[in-house]
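Box 3.1 A note on notation
Throughout this textbook, protein chains are presented in two layers. The first layer is the amino acid sequence; the second is a C-alpha cell string describing backbone geometry. Keep the layers aligned when reading.
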Amino acid sequence: MKVTDHISNAQGKTLFSFEIVPPVKGKNIQELYNNIDPLMEFNPPFIDVTTSREEYVYVNKEGLLDKKITRMRPGTVGICASIKHKYNVDTVPHVLCGGFTKEETEYVLVDCQYLGIDNVMALRGDAMREEQYFTPAKGGHTYATQLVSQIQNLNSGQYLHDDTPMENNADFCIGVAGYPEKHLEAPSLQSDLKRLKEKVDAGADYVVTQMFFDNQKYFEFVEAAKKMGINVPIIPGIKPMAVKRHLQLLPQVFKIDLPQDLIDAVDNCENNKAVRQVGIEWAIQQSKELKKAGVPVLHYYSMGKSDNVYSIAKELF
C-alpha cells in the first residue's frame, strides 16, 4: 500500500514509522531484525531503508595501495523485500542520484515493481567523502527533481530507451526530502522551498523532513510550504540525541540549530547514558506536541539501535 493511502486511511490519526540502515557487508541481517522486532509493537505502516553512497577504499596489492570504489552497505532492495515478507509491512527503499546511472536506477525500480514495493524515497544523496561538492555519476541525475521525473515517467509506462509496452505500469508513491532549516547547500530557505515545489510538481506525493529539534521550525516550514503551493503531506523526521558529540556533529553535518535548553541539558550530563535519556525525553516532548498538532506520521531516524525509539514510541502509541 502507498504511504499516502496509509495516511488517508488513518483519518487524522498520527502514524508511527522509522528508518533503518542496511548492515555493513559481512554482518548478519539478524541484528537488524533484533532492532526491528520491538518496534513492531507500535504497528508501523511502513519502514524506510536507506541507501549508502559508494566510497573509496585502499587495497594492498603487492606492497602498493590500490584505490578501489565500493559500497559498504549494499542490499537496500533485498532488505526491503525481506522485511516486507517477514513482518508483512510496507517498505520504502531510498533511491539516490549519487552513484547511479539512469539505467541502474531503472533496474532498481523494475526490481521494486516485481517485488511488490509500492513506495520509493527519491533523494539526490550527499557528496562522497572525498568530494567537496556533489558530483553526479556519468549518465546519472544531478538533482532529485530529475529522479522524481524518471520515476513518474515509469509510472506512466515510459522506459528510458525503448517503447516496450507495459502490460502492468508501475505505480510508485514517491517521497522526497524537505529541510525545515534549509538544505546546507541552499542559499536561502525560500530558494530551497522553490526546489521542493519543483519536486512536488514533478510528481512527489509526500515529504519527509530532515531532523529538527525545535518544533517551531517545522510548523513555520509547513506554513511556508503551503503558501508556496505545496499541498502534499509533510512528515516530520525526529532523531533522538544519543551522544554528547552530537552537539557538534549534528550542526556541522546537517547545518541545523539546537535549542539552548537542549544544549544545556546535554552539557550537564556526566556520560552518554545520561545524554541518551535526555534525548529520549526531549523527543517525547517534541513528539507529543507534533502529535497534538495533527501531523500525519511521526518518523524516527532509528538508524542503529532501536531502544531509544522504543522508549519514545511507548509514550505515544
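The chain has a mean pLDDT of 92. The two ends are 21 Å apart (CA to CA).
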